[in-house]
């Protein structure tokens, strides 16, 4: 009975060792460990590999995380040994990250403890305050593509899918934005609002005189932009400097290109711009979130129509 217990314990310990970190060394002597093995195939020459990337101190204080840049993954190409040797013969330093990835499989997680200057070379990023400090580079290989063409095709397909999703979401917001504007007008007892075919609402607060500017006109305007909750995000009035731009040339948001064609010289108005005519799914800056309805109090100070 005791013998069986000892065998069982030995088997568990052997399994623990087998599942533990696998120490490896790159061709240029950089040591790293596979901390978790994936189930994918081994990475080969000319593969394009997408991977997560985290860089921290040995005490586990994060210095960099790829997600902080707005991206999920970084990507690297695994060059053939012949090219790597040519680069080294030409005096180019070895790439520890590329060497490490080349020795992994799809789905692996790995860590490399290394002096920052040995990893980044002479061009250390801003988050590295001391090039002589030791850092821990952690990566996980997520997607492996046969070559650059396969990677490019996949990226194009992903972009097309993202565009489709954004278009579907934008179409949903046409009704949402319209209702938000209508509710705002009702809640604030604003009358006289006119709606264009594109969904732009405008209210003339002080009528000007003469004709409206034509497409291509150079217009001079004052404006104050707010969100529907009243947060101000920009104002030429506050700066004391009118804003000039060519009308209908795509230099400003679509709601402006359309809105100022509806106003005569000297007119003051409020434009209620649905997100599709504003900054859409992208938003702008920290205040204008994706799919934000915008409110602009504007004045068409002057304009010069294009010479015919």
Describe the structure.
This protein is of the alpha+beta class. The chain has 2 domains: 24-146, Chitinase A, domain 3, CATH 3.10.50.40; 167-304, Chitinase A, domain 3, CATH 3.10.50.40. The chain has 7 helices and 14 strands. It has helices at 2-19, 81-89, 96-102, 116-120, 148-187, 236-239, 254-259, and strands spanning 22-25, 31-36, 48-56, 62-65, 74-77, 109-115, 134-145, 194-195, 201-206, 218-227, 232-235, 243-246, 268-273, 294-304. The strands form 2 sheets. Strands 1, 2, 3, 4, 5, 6 and 7 form a 7-stranded antiparallel β-sheet that branches. Strands 8, 9, 10, 11, 12, 13 and 14 form a 7-stranded antiparallel β-sheet that branches. It starts with a helix and ends with a strand.
Short note summarizing the structure:
With 308 residues, this protein is α+β, with helices and mostly antiparallel strands.
Rg over CA atoms, rounded to whole Å, is 30 Å
Number of domains: 2
Major beta sheet summary: 7 strands, antiparallel
Q: Which spans of ≥5 residues are poorly predicted at pLDDT below 50?
A: 1-18
Q: Please state the structural category.
A: alpha+beta
Question: What do we call the CATH topology of the largest domain?
Answer: Chitinase A, domain 3
CATH class designation of the largest domain: Alpha Beta
Q: Summarize the helix and strand pattern as letters.
A: HEEEEEHHEHEHEEEEHEHEE
The number of helical segments is 7
């Amino acid at each position: 009975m005791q013998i069986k217990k000892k065998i069982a314990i030995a088997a568990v310990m052997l399994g623990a060792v087998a599942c533990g970190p696998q120490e490896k060394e790159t061709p240029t002597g950089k040591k790293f460990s596979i901390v978790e093995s994936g189930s994918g195939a081994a990475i080969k020459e000319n593969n394009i590999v997408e991977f997560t990337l985290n860089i921290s101190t040995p005490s586990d204080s994060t210095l960099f995380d790829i997600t902080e840049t707005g991206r999920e993954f970084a990507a690297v190409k695994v060059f053939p040994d012949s090219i790597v040797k040519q680069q080294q013969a030409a005096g180019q330093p070895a790439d520890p990250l590329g060497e490490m990835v080349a020795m992994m499989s799809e789905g692996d997680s790995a860590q490399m403890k290394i002096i920052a200057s040995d990893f980044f070379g002479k061009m250390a990023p801003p988050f590295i305050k001391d090039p002589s400090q030791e850092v821990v580079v952690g990566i996980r290989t997520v997607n492996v593509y046969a070559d650059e063409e396969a990677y490019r095709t996949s990226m194009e397909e992903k972009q097309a899918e993202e565009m489709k999703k954004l278009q579907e979401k934008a179409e949903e917001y046409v009704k949402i934005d319209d209702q938000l504007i209508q509710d705002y007008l009702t809640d604030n007892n604003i009358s006289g609002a006119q709606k264009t075919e594109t969904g732009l609402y405008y209210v003339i607060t002080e009528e000007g005189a003469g004709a409206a500017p034509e497409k291509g006109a150079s217009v001079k305007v004052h404006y104050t932009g707010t969100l529907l909750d009243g947060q101000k995000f920009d104002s030429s009035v506050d700066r004391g400097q009118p804003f000039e731009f060519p009308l209908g040339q795509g230099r400003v948001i679509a709601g402006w290109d359309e809105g100022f064609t509806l106003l005569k010289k000297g007119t003051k108005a409020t434009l209620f711009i649905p997100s599709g005519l504003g900054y859409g799914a992208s938003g702008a800056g920290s205040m204008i979130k994706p799919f934000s309805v915008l409110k602009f109090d504007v004045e068409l100070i002057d304009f010069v129509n294009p010479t015919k």
